[in-house]
Design goal:
mainly alpha
């Protein structure tokens, strides 16, 4: 999936499918300003944020998205030497 790539359902949330993946990718690309980092982060963002959103309206803040990405990237770094 690429930023801006159209999908049939468009951005959605509340489950772990292609709509929430597109939403997570768009949020990551917008907040990070780096398509490569967005590609690396969006699946985790989908499961940890977009799939868990409920209702018809929500407002993710830039800070909340950045914090979640930073937490996930830190977890990746911490596990890099394992195994």
């Amino acid at each position: 999936m690429q930023p801006g790539e159209p999908i049939p359902t468009g951005p959605e949330w509340g489950y772990a499918g292609s709509g929430p993946a597109q939403l997570a990718l768009a949020l990551a690309a917008d907040v990070l300003g780096d398509d490569q980092r967005a590609q690396e982060a969006y699946q985790r963002l989908k499961f940890r944020v977009a799939a868990r959103l409920n209702g018809d309206r929500w407002e993710p803040t830039r800070e909340a998205v950045l914090r979640r990405v930073a937490e996930d990237e830190g977890a990746d770094d911490a596990g890099a030497g394992c195994g």
